[in-house]
Design brief:
By secondary structure, the protein is of the alpha/beta class. The chain has one domain: P-loop containing nucleotide triphosphate hydrolases (Rossmann fold). 53% of the residues lie in helices and 13% in strands. Strands 2-3-1-4-5 form a five-stranded parallel beta sheet. Helix 1 packs across helix 8, helix 2 packs across helix 4 and helix 4 packs parallel to helix 5. The radius of gyration is 15 Å and the shape is globular. The protein starts with 6 loop residues before the first strand and ends with a helix. 33% of the residues are buried. Bound molecules: shikimate-3-phosphate. Catalyzes the specific phosphorylation of the 3-hydroxyl group of shikimic acid using ATP as a cosubstrate. Its EC number is 2.7.1.71. It is found in: Cytoplasm. It comes from Fuscovulum ytuae.
Length: 169
């Protein structure tokens, strides 16, 4: 197993491919892969949608910070985060101290194509999910741009192409 010095933290919008690309990067480098959403679900024994519905977004965000802090204290790995994780200054500090952030940048149309048929994302359960995604995108891009490394996605790039770009970066 290759030794990573720091945890590589994948950030970016829903549909950017953080989990798929992060998994492929971990495989390419033979290092462990972890996903903060998955850890939250495991601990709560409920889906993300159920957590939002039953406990509210603030509860989810608090769990997200706890999980990030815990995982960033552990051995270096590839860590995929939920699309809102990097928005919190506390979370960004945790990432800055113990990891290296990689923003998977994708344009709004590509993100929409990827998320439009999925019903698992509570933030997009609105009367106009396309517009909600645009609003989130516009509000979040300035924050994602604080990431240390930016890797551009494109419709014609496969997951392995993207993983190779991340590894190179
Ligand atoms: C969220 C993105 C989701 C999940 C939750 C909130 C967000 O993760 O953490 O629904 O605020 O953008 P993905 O980015 O993996 O969809």
């Amino acid at each position: 197993m290759r030794r990573l010095k720091k945890t590589v933290v994948m950030v970016g919008m829903m549909g950017a491919g953080k989990t798929a690309v992060g998994t492929a990067v971990a495989r390419a480098l033979s290092v462990p892969f972890l996903d903060s959403d998955e850890e939250i679900v495991k601990a709560a024994q409920r889906s993300i949608a159920e957590i939002f519905e039953r406990d509210g977004e603030a509860f989810f965000r608090a769990r997200e910070t706890e999980v990030l802090a815990r995982l960033l204290r552990g051995a270096p790995c590839i860590l995929s985060t939920g699309g809102g994780a990097f928005l919190s200054e506390t979370n960004r500090k945790l990432v800055q101290e113990a990891g290296v952030s990689v923003w998977l940048r994708a344009d709004l149309d590509l993100l929409w194509q990827r998320v439009r048929h999925k019903t698992t994302r509570p933030l997009l359960r609105t009367s106009n999910p396309r517009d909600t995604l645009r609003q989130l995108y516009e509000a979040r891009v300035p924050v994602y741009s604080l990431a240390e490394i930016v890797v551009d996605s494109a419709a014609d790039l496969s997951i392995d192409d993207m993983a190779a770009k991340v590894v190179a970066a």
